Please model this.
Amino acid sequence: MTVIGVDIGTSSSKGVLVDEDGSVLATAVRPHTVDRPLPGHVEMDARVWWDEFASLTRELLKSAPDDTSVTAVGVSGMGPCVALADATDTPLHPAILYGVDTRATEQIARLDDELGHDAVLRRCGSLLSTQAVGPKIAWLAEHEPDVVARARRLYMPSSYLVVRLTGAYVLDHHSASQAVPLYDSVAQEWYEPWARHIAPWLELPRLLWPGDIAGQVTAEAADATGLPAGIPVIAGTIDAWSEALSVGAQRTGDLMLMYGSTMFLINTLSERLLVPQLWSTVGALPGTRSLAGGMATSGMITDWLRELFGMPEHSELLAGAEASGPGARGLLMLPYFAGERTPVADPHARGVIAGLTVEHTRGDLYRAALEATAFGVRHNVEAMRAAGADIRHVVAVGGGTRGGLWTRIVSAVTDLEQEIRTVTLGASYGAAFLAAGAVGGPLIDEWNPVRERVVPDPQLRSGYDELYALYLRLYPATREISHELAERRRHTAD
Model:
């Protein structure tokens, strides 16, 4: 048994070829960029997702041993996204990305009044926010009526790959539960009254669980990708939940920390928790629930700094941040460089670097960015625990786990021990695991055993406690100024 997993992420698409015991036979990456045509708008052409998928699978198959026979395909992708297509599945507008796209603030307020703030939370598990799908569809209806007049179907990266591979128009339950307010998270089905209120023209996709088989690779898709025709393709899901599965964070009390372009946190629950500041969703596996939080930026900030610094090697920047030491020599950063998702829920929040002097170095700035994301993680963890979440076991995954410094800072700031598995490829590996489960049923602990544990440094805790208290004060102290600057920027762009 050999399976392929492909994930469409914010900064790249990744593919992995995995054999029956979880060993990685080949990997491939396609870097890409998102489009930012206006302040608060973050988009991507859905056709790129398919082109990169086909390119990745051909490279993976070319790298595979001669006797390799792929038996199943797994997919995942960033989300929740809004990619509208016509009845022939032709994309009609660049896909509007998840909570980093903040264009629909007026529609959020309007739908909140029309549907009822508390009613949305009770039925959907999450409030209307920049993460929600419904307001973005409403934005398109108001600003792109010609698009909506032809639109019939809604896709996210994983479901768009599925339809191109199999012809099946489906969406997994977890992704649907983030399509607020179209999905009833109590009944675990589409909520027709609100879906029709927002998009009466929309044909709602058939719902499956992420590991369910959606269909088989068609002859046309086989020609485009090099995959064998007739092999099964799973429904897939949003990348963070696929990433959690890749490292075994699927039991009650597990918390996954995803170190990527954005920082994501998923706590697995047995029962639903309703928390206005966070997202309550159905889990990636039947019978599970999730309480999730997500920062709008994390790795995006370090990538931005690296670009400003002339693209030095990551190891060089990490060495500078290590030398800077705890507290970044008097710097404190708010990581709200694209607004903030949870628990602040403020699309108009802005990044702040406090304490900056001419004596500070790029190592200090890089350290301050790593510490800012750690403070954001602690802010989310505290919100989860205040709501009654039971966090017993923490697993870290993603590109940010490499090098060790970032994970050590997060453990010191949060006082959480983190487990790191042998394979940290993330969502593409999780998609491969789900695909393997559809045809054979491996255990993730056998596929991907623990490699190391990051233990909090007690000597750093008091200093970071003091800085965290300042971090919590910095946002309310600068909020009004940040909002005024955001408004000025919007008017300038208009």
In short: Residues 306 and 312 are 7 Å apart (CA to CA).
